[in-house]
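Hey Z.,

So I finally got round to the pyridoxal-5'-phosphate thing we talked about over coffee. Here's the setup:
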Amino acid sequence: MSDGGQGFSTRAIHAGQEPDPLTGAVAVPIYQTSTYKQDGVGGLRSGYEYSRSANPTRTALEQALAALEGGVRGLAFASGLAAEDTLLRTVCRPGDHVLLPDDAYGGTFRLVARVLANWGLEYTAVPLGDLDAVRAALRANTRVIWCETPTNPLLGIADIAGLAAIASAAGAKLVVDNTFASPYLQQPLSLGADVVVHSTTKYLGGHSDVVGGALVTGDLTLGEELAFHQNAMGAVAGPFDAWLVLRGIKTLGVRMDRHCANARAVVDLLLGHPAVGRVLYPGLPTHPGHAIAAAQMRDFGGMISFTLRGGEEAALKVCELVQLFTLGESLGGVESLIEHPGRMTHASVAGSALEVPPDLVRLSVGIEDVDDLIADLSSALA
Ligand SMILES: *Cc1c(COP(=O)(O)O)cnc(C)c1O
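And the result:
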């Protein structure tokens, strides 16, 4: 698809989403069908034969995703982890090796360490912010360098272009999980990544009402291989879920601007607060990845983590005292969320190299009126 050099939000609203040819419907219809009438044996009307293989609502989403990431092929899945599983079992074979960030998303770590390891995949967890450590961890059978930036929940930053150079010299693929940044803030394919992964559950969907995943690549051959596996493995996004993500995407740009602005105001509150220890946010000049983040991101996102001087007990207390921030897992929705990674999202990595500090709290700053967010956090911290 051609984006005609259009801006991000124009593509978000129009790419893959021409008015319905039959009725003129401006919103892409939810094609809630499993199969399609054939005009004679093998005579497909529009290329659709069965909705695992392809469905028009999903196609619209897949084209929009490709346009937003600057890729040539987008694929929509039932969840972020379904997308990851399909990707890893497309590009790797048993006996291959992958490098994972040492603070990878817990579900990604569990998929590799507890599921794909049984299938024969080898892995090493490395600090991706340290390119020498990445080079040192490469093996002859390294097929994938898996990058998250910013990372979850420590908001570490990795140099996508630097990792792309290492991956291509090693004959490996660079995969970037772009869930935290969203394509509005960061375009990994343009920095040399081979594949972008999303949990569309988060910022792309944006309304905490759908679970979904996506892959986007700039390589047509790889895109075909991924599409073959998407159909063969079958973990596709259903039409209604695809439609919800498509609707969310239309406002991604305006939502992200507000998420970023609100996050900056919350960071200002936390920085001066006596109850708060460290504030982890890539927009801070003191953040070790700040210069790279400033170069490869449009803005610094809506995620913030911070530690409490009062330790784990104080961290748990803040999570319970907030009223407007909702205590819950997930992120990237319009409503602000708070969570305790050590006991919630990252409980499954306790005791591993990915264990997170017990005094850590993570915020997904929503798009409510910022004064209300500040008032809520201030009183919970008091
Ligand atoms: C949520 C998340 C995933 C997994 O996506 P699901 O849609 O929950 O399967 C992967 N990576 C990151 C960074 C996430 O936040």
